[in-house]
Amino acid sequence: QGQLVESGGGLVQAGGSLRLTCVASGSIFSINAMGWYRQAPGKQRELVATVTTGGTTNYADSVKGRSTISRDNAENLVYLQMNNLKPEDTAVYYCNAVTEFYPYEYWGQGTQVTVSS
Fold it and tell me: Please, which residues have CB within 8 angstroms of residue 58's CB and are 6 or more apart in sequence?
C-alpha cells in the first residue's frame, strides 16, 4: 500500500519559517499533482498550495508571497517552504497526491504547525 509521510512541522514564533516535506512511498505511481492542505481547529480543510508534474503551481491567497511549493518528481517528494509565519497559519498540514489510477487520491496523516504570537 502506498502512503504519504509528512515531516517538518513544529512550533515557531510569528515571523519565523518552516519547511514541510512529504514523501510518497510504497505503491504510489503516476502522480499528477501533489500539494498541501491545512485544517485549523473548528474549520474545514483548505488548500494551501499544489504543484503539478509539469511544475505549475497554485497558492491560496492567504499564503501567496510567503510560501513556496516545490517538487522532486523522481523521488516523489514535495516541499512547502513557509516564511513570515503568522498565528493564523496554525493548523494541521496534510500532504495530498492525485494519481492517474485508482485510488486517484492519497492523504498523509498530517503534521502540526503552531505559530505563537
Answer: 35, 47, 49, 50, 51
DSSP-derived 3-state class of residue 88: helix
pLDDT above 90: residue 27: no
pLDDT per residue as tens digits for the range 45-78: 999 999 999 999 999 999 999 999 999 988 899 9
Q: Is 89 helix (H, G, I), strand (E, B) or coil?
A: helix
Exposure class string for 27-38: b at 16+ Cβ within 10 A, else e: ebeebebbbbbb
Query: In percent, how much of the chain has pLDDT > 70?
Result: 100
Q: Is 53 left (phi over 0), alpha (psi -120 to 50) or beta?
A: alpha
